[in-house]
Write a structure and sequence with these properties.
The protein contains 16 helices and no strands. With 346 residues, it is mostly helical. The chain folds into two domains: 9-90; 103-344, Heme Oxygenase, Chain A, CATH 1.20.910.10. Helix 1 (9-20) runs antiparallel to helix 2 (25-35), helix 9 (161-174) packs antiparallel against helix 14 (261-292) and helix 12 packs across helix 14 (261-292). The longest helix has 32 residues, at 261-292. Bound molecules: fe (ii) ion (2 copies). The site of one fe (ii) ion (FE2) has 4 residues, from loops. It holds the Pfam family Haem_oxygenas_2.
């Protein structure tokens, strides 16, 4: 995939450096400036720069040498951005964690889910969203769903015993249980094609506002730091625990538009699978992890709270744009129809 379109001085310099092969000291200085953003989670330049750094650990970019993945200077630049990002994530998550009652970790997670009373994007998609809003929604969601499960997979080698077995059980389903067409990312691609959207990995990053990129960056950040293994596991648990009911609403929204199985399969699958994953994630995975490493309890709650808060901010941003009669996509890249080359390559 191509590099994302820059959104400010840092991402502009970073993309130029990755292409030319030399990271300039001036780019590092720009990272310091970006890290001073008063709103790191809503800062487009900072989020797209972080996204660019992380993507080198996934599929990389066409015009960027794969060796950049472990370039010490680039990792130093990323660390500057991550310090600001982590501080903002901890701030955003703090109220959820503080409100958690005492008890077993699975009960604490359930209480956190129950306390979420934010505006419901899934409710809007079920009852009101038209074809155009659905296309925008899928365009934005594709930033994560086309690499669904990958960020949490980083946690597998970092934990052990029953918690690891539970994580692998969940991930095996996410990856289709051995069937490439059943992979959740593939089911999402199939759904996108019913809206004639480009389903190429990373195709819609330019359309995603900072709040949406931040949801993916947070997963990558937690997943790529072993010290935060409790948090990435908590993040996954929250995702699984908040999937069944919204997935049912998304599927009904698609049926309301007259869409068939190709479109609804992704959400139907989540209604079924996540009813099981919810227990496996909260009791077997998080419960066993905290039993084995009690000091990770706070991190599990932190990761869950980050997932909840960022999802709610991204959803609120989308609803706010629609309520104001605007597109939820960034204007530089409205959702584009499938290109002939991507259609031909499937
Ligand atoms: Fe999934
Ligand atoms: Fe799941």
């Amino acid at each position: 995939m191509p590099l994302p379109t820059p959104r400010g001085p840092l991402s502009e310099a970073l993309c130029a450096d990755l292409t030319s092969g030399t990271l300039r000291p001036a780019t590092l200085a720009l990272a310091d400036q970006a890290a001073a953003s008063p709103v790191p989670l809503a800062d487009d330049d900072l989020q797209v720069a972080l996204y660019t750094c992380y993507e080198l650990h996934y599929r990389g970019f066409d015009e960027v040498d794969d060796r950049w993945e472990w370039d010490p200077q680039l990792l130093a630049l990323r660390a500057v951005l991550e310090r600001a990002f982590e501080a903002a994530l901890r701030d955003a998550a703090a109220p959820w964690v503080r409100a958690c009652p005492e008890g077993t970790v699975d009960r604490q997670l359930a209480a956190m889910v129950a306390a979420d009373d934010g505006p419901s994007l899934s409710g809007h998609m079920a009852k009101q969203a038209d074809e155009e809003q659905w296309a925008e929604f899928l365009t934005l969601r594709s930033v994560y769903h086309l690499k669904e499960a990958d960020p949490h997979t980083w946690a597998i080698p970092r934990i052990a015993g029953r918690a690891k077995a539970a994580l692998v059980e969940i991930q095996a389903d996410e990856y289709g249980g051995g069937s490439p067409v059943r992979m959740h990312s593939a089911l999402f691609a199939r759904l996108m094609r019913t809206f004639d959207l480009d389903d190429t990995h990373g195709a819609h990053v330019d359309a995603a506002p900072a709040e949406v990129l931040a949801t993916l960056n947070a997963m990558s950040f937690l997943g790529l730091h072993r010290r935060l293994r409790g948090a990435v596991v908590g993040h996954l648990a929250l995702v699984e625990m908040t999937s069944t009911a919204p997935s049912r609403r998304y599927a009904s929204g698609l049926r309301r538009l007259g869409k068939g199985d190709d479109a609804t399969l992704f959400y139907d699958e989540h209604v079924e699978a996540d009813a099981v994953h919810e227990q496996v994630a909260s009791v077997d995975m998080c419960g066993s992890l905290v039993a084995a490493e009690p000091e990770l309890r706070d991190d599990v709650l932190l990761g869950a709270a980050i997932a909840l808060e960022l999802e709610s901010r991204a959803g609120a941003r989308v609803l706010q744009e629609w309520t104001a009669g605007r597109s939820a996509l960034r204007p530089v890249a409205q959702s584009s129809p499938r290109s002939d080359s991507s259609a031909a390559s499937r």
